[in-house]
Amino acid sequence: MHQSLRPYVTAGIAVLGAGMVAVTPVAAASAVDIQPMPEVALTAGVGLGDIDFTQAWTDAFDTAKDNFTAVQAAASDASSALTDALKAADFSTLDFNQLSAALTFLAGDQKTFLNTLAPQTMDDLHAVVYMVLTDPAGQLTGGEPALPEDLLPLVNFAASPLSGQLFAALGPSISPMVALINSFEAISANLSGADGASPDVTAALQEMVNIPANMVNGMLNGATFNLDALAPALEGAGLLPEGMGVDGISLAFGGLLSPGSVAGVTDGGAGESLIGSVGGSIFNALGLNLTGVPLLDTLDLEPNGIGPLGAFAMMQNVLAQWLSGELPALEPAEVDPGAGVADVDWLSGFDLGDLFGLSA
């Protein structure tokens, strides 16, 4: 099955701030007439009329509706494909090692097996960075492997469908807390006047009002955790090629309805994705702002969270391909099994023009 990889080469804990609210009573309009509601105002002169109590809820449920539509369509397609594959499958001819390799990315050669499956667990840019990081011969990075051999299995598993399934199971319970922390961070920034700006009491109060909606939005649609404070540690861990640095880092946790965002597998033309309209992995949930990238200098990887429903549909797709014999042929790696990757010639038949989207 043809797969398309057309990339465009490319935490900190928040401090909670609180504002003082003053309620100014209004004298009774009349001893007989019905008294009007008192006017509530902030000490900074901000009235409740400046606060929107519904927009955050509207945005959360609108996003949930769109996500549900995407997940429902993908789940229906995946279920139908799996049902058809089960009916036609000849289990006596199936290779269970191939299924294990496809689910965990811990076996099989990198170029013809894992990189072919990568579009179902990563978007374009994540897939390209994954290809570079897990190039066992280092031929894409000037002859030196980007990662030590003992780290390859870790990165491979983080990019696998099984990692997406496990990560998706945690998302709906973690995302509301991430949304709460993000709200606290925004309130603190608004009250402290970050970057030389004047304190914005209205924005801080608006964020306070939005906290319940933000947490529900996190449960349904996911939330992204800012981990910029870990950037120096990542740079010093030796996980990146020499000369590259990290300016920002984040991690996207999916909600119940988060479909994820992946490149997908197409028919080779301009048609819709045939497989992989939803999907993801731990690696795909990682957001990075990379510096020192060859040709581009900087490269932004957007984090993509995935929820349990989207991850289940992705797993059904992989199972359907395995049962139908559509997975790439599994060629066991001729290296120590702990390495989990093969020492293969990455540049054999490798089209750099196709990699960078320059092929005719």
UniProtKB/TrEMBL annotation:
Signal peptide (residue range): 1-28
Superkingdom in the source lineage: Bacteria
Keywords: Signal
UniProt key word Signal: yes
The protein's name: Outer membrane porin GjpA
Species name: [Mycobacterium] nativiensis
